[in-house]
Amino acid sequence: MSGGRTGRVIEGAGVSRRRFLTGSAATAAAAVAATSPAIPGFTGVASSAARPNVLLIVTDDQPKQTNWAIQKTINWLGGQGVTFSNGHVTTPLCAPSRSSIFSGRYAHNHGVRNNAASLSLDQSTTVQRHLKQAGYRTGLFGKYLNSWPLADAPPHFEEWALLQPGYVDRQWNVNGTVQTINGYTTNIIRNRTLAFLERARTDTRPWFAYVTPYASHEPNTPAAQYADTVVPAWNGRPSVPEADRSDKPAYVQNATNTLADGRAVRTRQLRTLLSVDDAVQAFRDKLAAIGQLDNTLVIYIGDNGFQWADHGLLGKGTPYSPAHEVPFYLSWPAGGLGGGTTDNRIVANIDIAPTILAAAGIIPGTPHDGESLLSAFDRDHLLIEWWKQGTAGVKDSWASFVARNRQYVEYYDLHTDTSGRVSGTGQVTFREYYDLVNDPYQLTNRLYQATPADEQNLGIPTLAARLAADRQS
After folding, report:
1. Residue 313: its pLDDT value, please?
2. What is the pLDDT of residue 367?
3. 212 in Cβ contact with 57 (< 8 Å)
4. Around Cβ 417, how many Cβ atoms within 10 Å?
C-alpha cells in the first residue's frame, strides 16, 4: 500500500517530559543575555525598569510568499530587526496556532486541537497572564480565538476591542460592551491600537498589545481604496497543480483546485494585506512619536500559511510547506535587535511566549515546548500536527517531522470532538517522505511503493520513532 502501515500509534494525553525555563526571578532581564548566548546583536536590558513594551501582530491565514503586500512591515521589522527565514506554525489552523502563541506549547499539550475547542486553553499559562501579573498594561485588538463567545471578556487583558471575524460593519466586544462598529475592521483595529499606544504618554507601565486583524482570511475583502489594486502576476509553482498525485493520500488525489483558483485567492489576500501594512507603518510612526520605538519588542507572524492550489488544494490544515510556513519578523533595537539581520534557524509560534517572557525578565512556572528566540537554541527539526474534527472529514489526523532537508508525515485514524478530546485507534493510515533539498515542492513521496530496504536507507524507522516521541513530549 502507498505509505504502508506500521501498526498502532495511540494519542497520549499525558506528558512524559517538559522543558522549563531555568534561572530565578531575581536575575531579571539582564541575565537573559548573560546566561544564554544570544542571537547576533542581542544585549538584553539593564533592569526591570527597562522592561520592553511588546507589540505582537498576528495576521490570519497569511502565507509566506506575500512580501509584495507588506513592504512597509518588511522595511521596519526586517530592515531594523530580524527576519526569520525558516518560520513555521506547529498546527496550521487558527485557534490551535493562536493558543500555541499564547502558551508556548504544542496543541497536544494546551488542548486546543481544533477551532471549536478554544475554551480548553488553560488561561493561567498564557503570556498575557504572566505579563499582566508582572505589571504590564495589556490590550487586545482584533480576532481572539475561534469559537470564543463574543460577549465574554478575553482573560488577562485590561483593555480590548474583540472582533466578531469579518471585514466591514462587524460586531465587537469593546471592554465588555457588544456593539456594531461601522467601517473596515483592519482600520478600526489600527485606530484602537493607536489609542492604546497613545496612552503610554501618561501611563508609565510597560505594555503588551496583541493586534490581530482578520486579513488575509477568506473572503479576503480588501478596503475600498485597494479593491482594484493590480497585484504582480503569478504563474504558480511546480506544485500548482501537481500533474501526478498518485503517491499522495486520497484527499489530495481528489483535489480539484486549479492555478486560476490559486491566483484569485492570492490576489484577494494581497489586497487585504495592504491595509495591514498601512496599520503597521502607523504603529511605527506612533511609537516614534511617543519615544518608545527603541524599547518595544515587536513580533509579526501569520497564524498559519495557505495553499494557492498546491497539489490541487486551497487552504491550510495540511502537512505541505505552504500551509505551515509563515512570515516571521522581530525587532527590538534596545535589546540589540535593530540591525536588519536574517536568522535561518527553524523557529515557530511556540517560541513567541518564551521570547517575550525572557525579554521581560519573567520566569514562569508553566512549561514551554518552545524556546526563547533570544537564546542560541537551534533545533534540528520541528513537530507539526493537525487533528480531524469529527468523523465526517475526508482527511485523517496527521503529524509530521520537519527538518531543513527532509519531512516525514504520518496520518492516523484519530479524530477530535468539540472540546479537543481525541478518539480513534491511532492506526497509521498513510505515510509520506520528502527530500526537501532536491524536491522542495514535495512532488515525490519517496515512500510510495517503497520496499523495506528503501525505508531503511531513508532512515524511516528512526524518523517514526522520533515522531512518536515528539507526539508524547
Report:
1. 97
2. 86
3. yes
4. 15
How confident is the model at residue 21, as a pLDDT?
29
d(CA 26, CA 178) in angstroms, rounded, equals 42
Report d(CA 336, CA 81) in Å as an integer: 9
Closest C-alpha to 170, from 181, 161, 186, 157 = 181
Query: Which CATH superfamily does the domain covering 25-378 fall into?
Result: Alkaline Phosphatase, subunit A (3.40.720.10)
At 165-200, the pLDDT tens digits run 999 999 999 999 999 999 999 999 999 999 999 999
Please list the residue range(s) of the chain that carry CATH number 3.30.1120. Answer: 384-472
Question: What order do you get walking across the sheet with 397-402 strand by strand?
Answer: 382-386, 397-402, 406-412, 428-435
**Residue 302: closest CA among 324, 284, 274, 283:** 324
CB 400 within 8 A of CB 410: yes
Q: Which residues of the chain fall below pLDDT 70?
A: 1-49
Please spell the DSSP secondary structure of 10-58, one letter per residue.
PPP-S-S--B---S-GGGTTHHHHHHSPPSTT----SSGGGPPEEEEEE
The CA radius of gyration of the chain, in Å to the nearest whole number, is 22
Burial degree of 219 (CB within 10 A; 0-12, 13-18, 19+): exposed
Positions of CATH 3.40.720.10 in the chain: 25-378
Q: Quote the pTM value.
A: 0.91
CA 280, CA 282: separation in Å to the nearest integer?
5
Bond preceding residue 419 cis, omega within 30 of 0: no
Rounded Cα gap, residues 263 and 257, in angstroms: 11
137-142 and 207-212 as β-strands: parallel, antiparallel, unpaired?
A: parallel
Tell me how far apart the alpha carbons of residues 166 and 93 are, in angstroms, rounded to a whole number: 17
Chain-centre distance for alpha carbon 132: 22
- Residue showing cell 544585549: 43
The beta strand positions in 276-369, using DSSP E, are: 296-302, 307-310, 313-315, 328-331, 341-343, 347-348
Any idea which architecture 384-472 has in CATH?
2-Layer Sandwich (3.30)
308-323 confidence digits (pLDDT tens): 999 999 999 999 999 9
Q: Could you tell me which residues come within 8 angstroms of residue 167 by beta carbon, excluding any fewer than 6 positions away?
A: 184, 185, 186, 214, 215, 219, 221, 272
pLDDT for 357-386, tens place per residue?
999 999 988 789 999 999 999 999 999 999
